Amino acid sequence: MSTRTGTRGEPVTPANPAVDTVDIAALLERGRDMSAPVLRAAVDRLAPPMDTVAAYHFGWIDAQGRPADGDGGKAVRPALALLSAEAAGAAPEVGIPGAVAVELVHNFSLLHDDLMDGDEQRRHRDTVWKVHGPAQAILVGDALFALANELLLEIGTVEAGRATRRLTTATRKLIDGQAQDISFEHRDRVTVEECLEMEGNKTGALLACAVSIGAVLGGADERTADTLEAYGYHLGLAFQAVDDLLGIWGDPDATGKQTWSDLRQRKKSLPVVAALAAGGPASEKLGELLAADAGSNDVDTFSEEEFATRAALIEEAGGREWTSQEARRQHAVAIEALHGVDMPEKVRAELTALADFVVVRKR
Amino acid sequence: MSTRTGTRGEPVTPANPAVDTVDIAALLERGRDMSAPVLRAAVDRLAPPMDTVAAYHFGWIDAQGRPADGDGGKAVRPALALLSAEAAGAAPEVGIPGAVAVELVHNFSLLHDDLMDGDEQRRHRDTVWKVHGPAQAILVGDALFALANELLLEIGTVEAGRATRRLTTATRKLIDGQAQDISFEHRDRVTVEECLEMEGNKTGALLACAVSIGAVLGGADERTADTLEAYGYHLGLAFQAVDDLLGIWGDPDATGKQTWSDLRQRKKSLPVVAALAAGGPASEKLGELLAADAGSNDVDTFSEEEFATRAALIEEAGGREWTSQEARRQHAVAIEALHGVDMPEKVRAELTALADFVVVRKR
């Protein structure tokens, strides 16, 4: 069976000509446009002041309560949930409650993670706990999680029950992943396998759910849903590998994060972990530097040059190249999984194009 | 129709002789014993260190990880969930997943509320955020909430879907109630109606769910479930009125809280709100004192006498008596609701006896 990507970093070359004609921007916009009104109506159900706090988080209003047209993120998940319904032969509309439920769970996790991690900025704006305080970040996160389940279960069908079960399982993995991520901070060494497991939980599981939830709501059987989840899970790992690259070498103007963002936060992300595992002089030098950093508070006052030194060592030890190849490996496995599901060729081309987009994106 | 209680504070006099023979301790113990192994197995599913943190919260281990035989609370909810199954003619075992799911949601809310409220003690022990840090309190709370839904949905029946929907609705109300409770702290005045609405959300909704969830799992129709919820909701309001009395005048040895606990926390609980609404010299004097307290930090250093003065004014203004009567009013409405459901007389007597227990308890 031919795969569309190599494992040694050569460019992605589409095997299916239809993939080239997919308009990714339009696909993402459709997901955003079709789910947005339902998402807003769901958030409007929250009791004050939680509705306002949630509206701030989603970028619909600013900190003073004035209407805003914030950056709601890339909206890959809603696009996937609608395609998921179409993959099962249903209308894209069937996937909308799934798209909204997944977005609610994703944003529940962002609200809580930003507070736990002490992150002050998200999508170029102050995080909710900075603006509205920790209690509101906890409370509104809880409310969005509950709302996600409520939205699905009030459909009242057997399919909705199955969809909610998949969402709940994904949410538990998401929480496991955050627990692992936090525990890594307190450890000297993390293996590549542990890092991949954490990222699979933290990013793969919910993306997998986004790709199965529309199909389940559209009546797909469990095997089809599992296969779509395999695509989504590996797509999530590819997505996260790219995120880890952007977290060190991304353009701040594009990502909305600081330069060397993940190094500032001493994240044991894939490039770091892979570089430390690689062995050799650069790897050892990096290990010594990071061990010294771990025991000091100086990282907060590092110059750009000190971060650049660490980034260069990660690259020299092969961590950047390994992570880049890992993104392509996961991309290939994701595409491979799509072959296991019978679906309209148009939808297959769109899911393939979305996977390509995830790997080449700059933000 | 005869009710078993007056509305003017006379003692509860059972109309149903069978109620007198109910062994409340045995009923609570049954709920605890039958649900405990399933609860423990559910918590064991959590990834480290969340399993350990949850075990500490439930009192199974101490802060050093040594086995402990902690006070797991009164266990009214599990007892109700098993009776709920029996009310629908099912075996008590049918209610077990419901009992455990409700306990998980209850404890999710305790973990998050203790952190949001800054409460350092619960059940005579340091709270989770004090021992394991805020991040673990958030994370383990999230995990328990997800686990509750997972446990019910993996049953895979239509009934389980309906049960999960009721639990999710109750959880949303719980969160609404906590949001209202927090907002009250920043307000000078709260009406009795607002306070009752908040307590209905924060305490009534989940107790209502405990009383319906076993029946729903046992195949009860929606009307029966709604009627059982009415009993549980008003039982919850009675429970909370008693809690509010214990929060001011409770015996610290019995409650595990400090003397004048709710006054120390400046809680706008029912006795306070009712006293302020009553009018008259004591009410006005109380209003002046509390308004002055609100603007100062001296409350933290108040002597026992200063709290005693405020408690005496609440009592003089009629807040204590009103709340005591309110507990009996809600108790009567709860018992009344039971008449709307056809159930075995033994179960009716047990639900009635549990309602009596809730109103006369000292902890």
Automatic annotation (TrEMBL), chains A, B:
Entry keyword set: Magnesium, Metal-binding, Transferase
GO biological process, one term: isoprenoid biosynthetic process
EC class name: transferase
Pfam families noted in UniProt: polyprenyl_synt (PF00348)
Highest taxon of source: Bacteria
InterPro entries assigned: Isoprenoid_synthase_dom_sf, Polyprenyl_synt, Polyprenyl_synt_CS
Enzyme Commission no: 2.5.1.1, 2.5.1.10, 2.5.1.29
Entry's Gene Ontology molecular function annotations: (2E,6E)-farnesyl diphosphate synthase activity; dimethylallyltranstransferase activity; geranylgeranyl diphosphate synthase activity; metal ion binding
Stated family: Belongs to the FPP/GGPP synthase family.
Protein name: Geranylgeranyl diphosphate synthase type I
Source organism (scientific name): Streptomyces candidus
